[in-house]
Amino acid sequence: MLVPLAGAVAMAVLLGVAAFVIFNRDHDCSAGKLALRVVATPDIQPALSKIAGTYNKALHSIDSRCVEVTVTKESAARTANALAAGKAAADLWVADSSLIVGRLRSDPAGAALPEPSGSAALSPVVLVAAQSMADKLTASLQPSWAGMIAAANVANPDGPGKKVRVLALDPQKNSAGMAALLAAAGSAKKAKQDKALVGALKELSGQIVSDPSALLASLTVRSGSKVPVGVASEQSVYTHNAKRPDAQVVPLYPAEGTYNLDYPMTVLAKDPGVRKAAASFQKELTTSSAQRTLRDQGFRTPDGKGGDVLAKGKGFVSTLSRPLAAPDPKTVASMAQTWSRLNLGSRMLTLLDVSGTMALPVPGTQLTRMQAISRIATEGLSLFPADSEIGVWAFSTHLDGQGKDWREMVSVGPLSETTDGRLRKEALATQLATVQAKATGDTGLNDTLKAAYTEMTKSYQGDKINTILVLTDGAGNDDPDGGVGNAEILSFLKKTYNPKRPVSILLIAFGPDAPKGKKQMDALAKATGGEAYIAENILQVRDFFLQGMERRLCAPKCDG
């Protein structure tokens, strides 16, 4: 009886020794600790920190050193800037989107950045509205990127924008904001709605919110009659609702599909041991326990599966539709440039023709040319945001004393600034509504244009788009007393124009005489990288202003 018992005891001892050896081999911290610094975007950092805590307790060993993972939060945009400057303090970077990683890798400053080695989670970019207003919203706007463009298009005031106000996440700070713009641009391109896209981007530039939590909170605050709708990641919707049960929002999944935030993981460490530690932690993120943690915090696993917190009864969908094809880095960079250039401030001097021909009636209307041009000016200037700097000069021969063909009606400055006891925007509206044509005046355009171009070039502001807008009946330059001739003004503009400090001329003519002056108008505009248009009706001016805004994207090389 003792022999079998002794054998059993010996076997148990051997098994225990083996287990001890194996355990200590896998959890050998005899050489100390091995630090792994993970930098992640603020939305996923809490989940990764929780996973890291569990991982650290398990004493994972690399070369006799136990890995100790710390996860700090930092916006992807800030980390990308640090990497471009060679100052990033991280071993493993978890950005929120491949959009920002791909764009950085395509830039010379980030060319050495390794390719991501997997995805930590997914979260689709969605439209969002307050739960209490969702029904009212969908009655006016079906969830789609095309609908968002239509509602935000500043040049379509009679569209869904009458009932809907679109808020945007700053694409320079948020990958969800950039993804939304790319999805909207793709939709507009398919529908051949490029001008509508420019109008929408211009409007959204004045409705941007830097932080997703602030955007979602604002959706539940009623302001005016318009229903607010925004863009955010699905996970941020879950987080908001978990924190604000009294102010719930709902995700609206765009009909065309959407982009996913895919949380790419990029190993930045050079040390072989730290790289092994990064690989070990990445493997940990694929375990059922880690993926459950991610799902419990509103993320989907890389295969698109969501947890119970993303239940259909809470407004979420159980299965994601096929995502939009990922844009290449060049497309992402182009959109970033588009947004940046469109959002440069506007500084514009408007030259308003008040010569005698402006008193003539416009056939088929009850308006004089002066009244029509004034309405065109009012319509066009209404498209500019409050921080725009705008002024108006009237022009006709000898308008301000003998030999001076122009008179300042409102000085160039911010629309929201007070001038002579009232806002500049109100002063402009009053002047445009009351201006009268000078019955005996000739045009005097060239003298005025030379003076205006000299002034705008002298006072050029590099952080703004500097433009001279000419509104006329298109009769060209008519100055019996001499003054600057057509050849002279063209020579002056070509000589003065500086592509590094561009001041462009935009001309809009309205009236039966407009076609006569089109050739000269084109020459004046082309000399400064501008454009000339003939308006057939007042509302057409919206398109002209949008086309002028489009030229910001290519200036100063719009014509080759």
UniProtKB/TrEMBL annotation:
Top-rank taxon of the source lineage equals Bacteria
Question: Where in the numbering of this chain does the VWFA domain appear?
Answer: 347-549
Q: Which InterPro entries match?
A: VWF_A, vWFA_dom_sf
Q: What's the name of the protein?
A: Substrate-binding domain-containing protein
